[in-house]
């Protein structure tokens, strides 16, 4: 065990830190010992821990935990990008969410992270042509977490979805790297068209709570969308938009809004 942990420490610092935090958690709260052991300490890699956690959360009378674990294990073995993205997501949550004090927390307790990893497996299934299974993952993720992400959507690394309740991301949506969004965000369409109909979110974008971005429009990198806004038009890079419908109210205010998580704006509003 000691040799395995040394290797993990050398090659997978995120997993090594989670393991250390899990051991501390068991010491601090023995009543959670069983949960922490089954979720973390019994697994040799983060991939196996993710498979277990997704399966435990999504299992139902219609599909067993064992089958779900086998599907997830296959996905992680087939596509290393899934676990690389999960590591980046954990770091993003830890760095941006002031309520997150350990790497262990997203894996065990944060439904935004857990829903995102469930989506990533569903997306892998969708890309393999196993669409019914992908839709099953989507359905269970919506039922369990209140997060509805179409398995065909494209989502980058380093994503932080805070609180996550009522998140909706449509089929042809694309979300770049290092994006942060809060609860009740919708990346949706505007009608019944079946082609490319959902937003394209650039890297480093911050999307406030309750914001709706609708249609096949682009939101430029490192921009900010204020809480409660309805965005119907393209957003240039490095701008802040607010309102219903949203309009430019100033600059983004910093190089990486999604990292700073600064939702306040005080620039001079542009002309309506």
UniProtKB/TrEMBL annotation:
Pathways involved: Amino-acid biosynthesis; L-cysteine biosynthesis; L-cysteine from L-serine: step 1/2
EC nos: 2.3.1.30
Signal peptide per UniProt: none
InterPro entries registered for this protein in UniProt: Hexapep, Hexapep_transf_CS, LbH_SAT, Ser_AcTrfase_N, Ser_AcTrfase_N_sf, Ser_O-AcTrfase, Serine_acetyltransferase, Trimer_LpxA-like_sf
Keywords: Acyltransferase, Amino-acid biosynthesis, Repeat, Transferase
Reaction(s) this enzyme catalyzes, per UniProt: L-serine + acetyl-CoA = O-acetyl-L-serine + CoA
GO cellular component: cytoplasm
Catalytic EC class: transferase
Family label: Belongs to the transferase hexapeptide repeat family.
Protein's name according to its UniProt entry: Serine acetyltransferase
Species of origin: Roseivivax halotolerans
Taxonomy of the source species: Bacteria, Pseudomonadati, Pseudomonadota, Alphaproteobacteria, Rhodobacterales
């Amino acid at each position: 065990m000691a040799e395995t942990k040394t290797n993990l420490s050398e090659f997978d610092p995120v997993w090594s830190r989670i393991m250390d935090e899990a051991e501390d958690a068991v010491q601090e709260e023995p009543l959670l010992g069983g949960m922490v052991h089954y979720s973390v300490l019994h697994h040799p890699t983060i991939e196996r821990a993710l498979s277990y956690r997704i399966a435990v959360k999504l299992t139902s009378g219609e599909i067993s935990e064992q089958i779900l674990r086998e599907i997830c294990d296959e996905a992680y073995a087939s596509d290393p990008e899934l676990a690389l993205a999960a590591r980046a997501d954990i770091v993003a949550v830890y760095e941006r969410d002031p309520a997150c004090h350990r790497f262990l927390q997203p894996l065990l307790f944060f439904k935004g992270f857990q829903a995102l990893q469930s989506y990533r497996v569903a997306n892998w299934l969708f890309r393999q042509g196993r669409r019914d299974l992908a839709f099953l993952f989507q359905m269970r993720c919506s039922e369990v977490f209140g997060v509805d992400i179409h398995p065909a959507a494209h989502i980058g690394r380093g994503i932080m979805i805070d609180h996550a309740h009522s998140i909706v991301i449509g089929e042809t949506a694309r979300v770049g790297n290092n994006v942060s969004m809060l609860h009740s965000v919708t990346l949706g369409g505007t009608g019944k068209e079946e082609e490319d109909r959902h937003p394209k979110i650039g890297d480093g974008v911050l999307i406030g709570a309750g914001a709706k971005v609708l249609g096949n429009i682009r939101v430029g990198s490192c921009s900010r969308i204020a809480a409660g806004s309805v965005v119907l038009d393209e957003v240039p890079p490095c701008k802040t938009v607010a309102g219903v419908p949203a309009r430019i109210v100033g600059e983004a205010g910093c190089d990486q809004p999604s990292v700073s998580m600064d939702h306040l704006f005080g620039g001079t509003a542009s002309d309506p």
